[in-house]
Amino acid sequence: MPKFSSYVYNIVIVLLTTSSSIIAQSRDNVFKELMSQIKTSVSDSARIHYKIELTKYILNRDIDTAKILANEVVETLERNKYRTLYFEGKKAEAINYLAIIEAKQSFPEKALSKYLEALKISKSIKDSTMLGLTVHNLGMFYRRQKEYSKAKAYFKEAIRIKERIVDNPNNVAKSYNMLGVTHFYEKQYDSAFARYSKAKEIYTSKQDIAKVNGNLALLYYSSKQYDKAIKVFQENIKTFRELGLLNELSTAYLNLAASHNGMKNYNKAIVSLDSAITISKKIKHKELLRKQYYSRSSVYKTTGNFERALEDYTLYKAYNDSLNNIKKAKRLIALELNYKFEKEKLQTELKLQSEKVKKQWYLVLLILSVTSAIIIFLLIRKNAKNQLALSTRKLENEQLQRKTAEQVLQLKEAELKNEHLNSQIKQEYQDLFIKELKSILSIESGENKTKAIKSLLASLKSKNIDYNTSLSLTEYLDKVSPSFKIKLNTHFLFLNEKEKKLLYLMKLGLSTNEIKDLQSISLASVKSTRYRIRKKLQINSDEDIINYIENYKPKE
Hints:
The chain is mainly alpha-helical. Among the domains are: 205-349, Tetratricopeptide repeat domain (Serine Threonine Protein Phosphatase 5, Tetratricopeptide repeat); 352-462, no CATH class; 470-550, Arc Repressor Mutant, subunit A (Orthogonal Bundle). It is built from 26 helices and no strands. The chain has helices spanning 6-17, 20-26, 29-40, 44-58, 63-80, 85-104, 108-125, 128-144, 148-164, 169-185, 189-202, 206-222, 226-243, 246-262, 266-283, 286-303, 306-323, 326-350, 352-441, 446-462, 472-480, 482-491, 497-507, 512-519, 523-537, 545-550. Helix 8 (128-144) packs antiparallel against helix 9. The longest helix has 90 residues, at 352-441. Mean pLDDT is 81; it is low at 1-27 and 463-471.
């Protein structure tokens, strides 16, 4: 394999020597040692190892240079088609750090794609150390995406993997620390404190202890113990500046500004935010810039400097919109689904032989199930038809019974009317007979008395009694159907008394023959009177006279 190309090496040297932070690092023994190892290594395996170590060392000091180094490792391995377990593991490690860089520079879709690629390689070579690193980094990714449930699941899995293989204690502590941060974002402060404390017990390096102390300081801030938080953040700023960790240094300034703001030291808060923004611009960290511009805008607004507040808020919106792009989110989901699909496809291929037998049984069960379902459906349908037929017959019987009951009721009502009317008529005959008898008894002449008695008997025999003098018909109608009488006397004034009397008798339900006998008139006379009524009402012979009058509505 060609040695570390002079072109890339020169670029690294230029980038490392053009900024004040890297000039300081060039005097660092660790940096010098790593550069020397890269130049003097005689084997490809050693050279690639030291390139990755240098990438890790300068990741938070000069992100662009770290990206060049990581890409150089991946390109070298792919170009030379190394496929041993060692080189595959190094490829997964380099891809992991490329993903970290993409995430820091706010390219989440690229970061997730690389994490999933590294995860696939780690699983294929069964490298538990690399698997633990990748799973931890996926937890970091989802925490930044605010998908805290996924993040916690990945961190817990990373802890299980690292503890099982007795990994470097600092690596285990790192997962505990990040799990605590995730709990903190969900405002689960007791769980966060427990995870931070566990991490602090395990950590051995100055840098890592400073990080977990910073997280504990955020808990102080959340409980409004601003003075304690400020003290810790100031100590961390000194530590991160000494170590040249720009990412952590920028975050520490942001947290220090928040604590000053809590104590209403607005000028100090703005100074801290100025420092934080300067560093974030240098490392091109969009997520930190978004938070820092928003914080400085809020402080300016509080102090009444609305012009500067608007400028910072505009910058915050620009970064926020670029980080929360909907299409970007869709691409992230697509990457996840694609990875899951590839994983499931591989598992399916491995189980193909055993699945064939299962599929045959499934087919038999499916046919039986479908057949059973059809039979059940037909039985249910037949039962439903029978139930419907029974219901229909029951309904018809009920309707017939109701109709019969109505007819019986109508007959009973007619009988009661006739009975009452006959009773009234009989009473009138009796009263009239008594009256006539009394008048006969008062006659002194025997001859005249005899004639009067004969006349009374003849009158009784022929029913020829003057009914017109009786008011009982009218009185009865008033009781039975007063509305009919009122409507007749209100809207049909053109009818004479004889015609109205006939209508009264018809309303009472008397037949033509009954009316003839009651009135002691001929059948032709009844029909003639009824014909005149129809003519006056202008209705034909098919139409019922009584219904017409009852339903009559005068025109407005």
